[in-house]
UniProtKB/TrEMBL annotation:
This is Phosphoribosylaminoimidazole-succinocarboxamide synthase. It catalyses: 5-amino-1-(5-phospho-D-ribosyl)imidazole-4-carboxylate + L-aspartate + ATP = (2S)-2-[5-amino-1-(5-phospho-beta-D-ribosyl)imidazole-4-carboxamido]succinate + ADP + phosphate + 2 H(+). The gene is purC. Belongs to the SAICAR synthetase family. Residues 7-261 form the SAICAR synthetase/ADE2 N-terminal domain.
Length: 285
């Protein structure tokens, strides 16, 4: 669908359009990026499902901190036909000044966190108890920031001290405390729906008054690892409701993780959509 607003940014997954100097339209496409490479094959309806999951969390967590919504609907800013076509995958948001770090919170040990722990006993410089294994629950959720990479580069885990150096000590503390509060509330809720939120990445921005504001996407299968309570077992890599499914397939295909990615078979695409839909259904029903 052609959108009659000026495109100002095309990310790996989402496209941003200018509405005016304060507002923009964020449209989630069906693109999937894995290992920071965009796959050639879109995942049908993924953008809609992600947007619905994010919207759910933005609303549920709005008592913790402000978010980037302006309160306008897409019908307020687009001709009716265009709005109808993208209404489930687009939101009107404030144009914020991004805080230039990825605010990752981990409640469980896996992925790059597990690798760091196995090498050093720490993640992002934070010491952890001995004897933890794959999928162990951490004593407390931890804030493990990473630096935001330019397009095509991988993000790098950084220490909290480095995070303070990059964005300032005062802002770093606000971001850390907000990220942990959001994670805890969401993880407690998700558990009641049979989902373990292993880890997640938040993005924050500052509004024109300098107020810290939650932006981007929130607690989706693209930005988080979701596990089922039913199949969770410490010491094993639990199957997930998220991008991990397609990442595992790509990993097993022998791909060297440089673009272009291999073509993904139809059944893997279908299963991926089903996983995203299942996450939405479980969380919101
Ligand atoms: N309210 C907002 N104000 C300003 N920027 C925002 C806002 N919400 C989201 N963004 C930015 O919009 C982009 C969304 O696109 P997408 O997630 O596809 O990008 P990406 O490939 O992850 O890009 P990046 O590498 O910049 O994170 C991100 O760069 C995100 O930081
Ligand atoms: Mg992004």
């Amino acid at each position: 669908m052609q959108i009659s607003l000026k495109k100002i940014y095309s990310g790996k997954v989402r496209d941003l359009y200018e509405i005016d100097d304060k507002r923009m339209l964020m449209v989630a496409t069906d693109r999937l990026s894995a290992f920071d490479v965009i796959l050639d094959d879109p995942i049908p309806r993924k953008g809609e499902i992600l947007t619905q999951i994010s919207n759910f969390w933005f609303d549920k967590l709005s008592h913790i901190m402000p978010n980037h919504f302006t309160g306008d609907s897409v019908f307020d800013v687009l001709p009716k036909e265009e709005a109808e076509a993208i209404q489930y995958r687009a939101v009107v948001c404030k144009r914020l000044t991004p805080v230039k770090i990825e605010s990752i919170v981990r409640g469980y040990l896996t992925g790059s966190g597990l690798k760091d722990y196995q090498k050093t006993g720490t993640i992002c410089g934070l010491a952890l108890p001995k004897g933890l294994v794959e999928a162990s629950k951490l004593p407390e959720p931890i804030f493990t920031p990473s630096s935001k990479a330019e397009v095509g580069d991988h993000d790098i885990n950084i220490s909290y001290a480095e995070c303070e150096r990059q964005i300032g000590a005062e802002l770093a503390a606000k971001v850390r405390d907000a990220a942990i509060a959001l994670y805890k509330e969401a993880a407690d809720y998700a558990l009641t729906k049979g989902i373990i939120i292993c880890d997640t990445k938040f993005e924050f921005g500052l509004d024109e008054n300098g107020t810290l504001t939650l932006m981007d996407e929130v607690l989706t299968p693209d930005s988080s690892r979701f596990w089922s309570v039913d199949t969770y077992q410490e010491g094993t890599n639990p199957p997930s409701f998220d991008k991990q499914f397609i990442r595992d397939w790509l990993e097993n295909s022998g791909w060297n993780k440089q673009a272009p990615a291999p073509r993904v078979p139809a059944d893997v695409i279908e299963k991926t959509v089903a996983k995203y839909q299942e996450a939405l259904d479980l969380l919101t029903k």
